[in-house]
Write a structure and sequence with these properties.
Elements lengths: L8 E5 L11 H9 L2 E4 L2 H10 L6 E3 L5 H13 L4 E4 L12 H9 L3 E5 L4 H9 L7 E5 L4 H12 L5 E6 L4 H10 L4 E7 L7 E5 L1 H11 L7 E7 L14 H9 L5 H10 L7 H15 L2
Parallel strand pairs: 1-4, 1-5, 2-3, 2-4, 6-7
Antiparallel strand pairs: 7-10, 8-9, 8-10
Helix pairs in contact: 3-4, 7-8, 9-10, 10-11
Length: 292
């Protein structure tokens, strides 16, 4: 009988976000024993591995080759080899490469194992002091003010008040100034260089945070994890609707859309603040009023 060869395992390994001592013993063992390590930046990863005294084969897996390289790793895994995925810092796939490989592995029936550890967004949320009964992670802030304005409005209309995002040190003051110019009634917790020797947090209103950044002076260094808490009076609520859901649906249906497609079109409208269930209910009311 032909021998059935078992697939290897794909390990998603979190690495320190600044302090190498945060690397877990299990993570170190996986990185030492895996057949290869898929790294976002092999040069940066080599620095960490040298500190941890880990010697292993590094293969590039950055965002510019992620789609093409996934097939290579899948073939290695199907040949029985184990692959450990790491990013420059933190947990892979959280605003970092790795997700395409994981999706491909799942599709092929390959075992995927997470090795938990550091994540800048989660760490910033944990020390923010904000309401964490629910929260959303949005990745990096948009670069253009128009896109930032859309995101801010989306946050104001959300079901949660707390949001975690990332921002470049080169754009952090630009972001704070944007929030000031928008008169955004939010509380901020900006976390810079977390777990490192000169870790700092800047807390308060956008104006207060700007003053703290200016006082620091060299704020354009180190990555920022930003936690935003929307204040109660700044949240959009149902009484602020200016157009009924029926009117919005009719506007779409006169373009030739059926009720189902009209609901989808309104949901995609950036000016819409109604939920899917509210729009479906409005669609049923229109149906009763005007028939089929």
């Amino acid at each position: 009988m032909e021998e059935i060869k078992e697939y290897g395992t794909l390990y998603i390994v979190a690495t320190p976000i600044g302090n190498s001592r945060d690397m877990s013993p299990r993570g170190m063992q996986i990185l030492s024993e895996a057949d290869m390590i898929a790294a976002e930046d092999t040069r940066r990863s080599m620095i960490l591995l040298n500190k941890l005294e880990i010697k292993n084969r590094l293969v590039s897996n950055h965002k510019f080759n992620e789609y093409g390289k996934a097939n290579y790793f899948i073939n290695e895994l199907k040949a029985g080899k184990s692959v450990a995925v790491i990013t420059d810092a933190g947990t892979p796939c959280i605003s970092d490469p790795g997700n395409e490989l994981i999706k491909a592995a799942v599709a092929e029936g390959i075992k995927v194992v997470g090795v938990p550890g550091c994540c800048a967004a989660v760490n910033a949320l944990a020390i923010s002091g904000f309401d964490l009964s629910s929260f959303l992670f949005y990745g990096f802030f948009p670069r253009e003010n128009s896109e930032r304005r859309k995101l801010l409005e989306k946050m104001r209309r959300g079901d949660t008040r707390t949001y975690a995002l990332y921002e470049s040190p080169k754009r952090i003051m630009e972001l704070v100034d944007f929030l000031i110019n928008e008169d955004a009634d939010v509380q901020l917790c900006l976390c810079n260089d977390m777990t490192k020797l000169h870790e700092m947090s800047f807390r308060g209103t956008p104006q207060q945070v700007k003053e703290q950044l200016l006082e620091k002076g060299s704020y354009e260094k180190g990555e920022y994890a930003v936690v935003v808490e929307i204040q109660p009076d700044y949240v959009f609520n149902k009484v602020e609707h200016t157009v009924s859901p029926e009117a919005m649906l009719v506007d779409e249906m006169v373009k030739g859309l059926n009720p189902k497609d009209a609901v989808a079109a309104v949901l995609a409208n950036e000016n819409n603040s109604y939920s899917k269930n509210e729009l479906k209910a409005a669609s049923l009311r229109l149906k009763k009023m005007f028939g089929e």
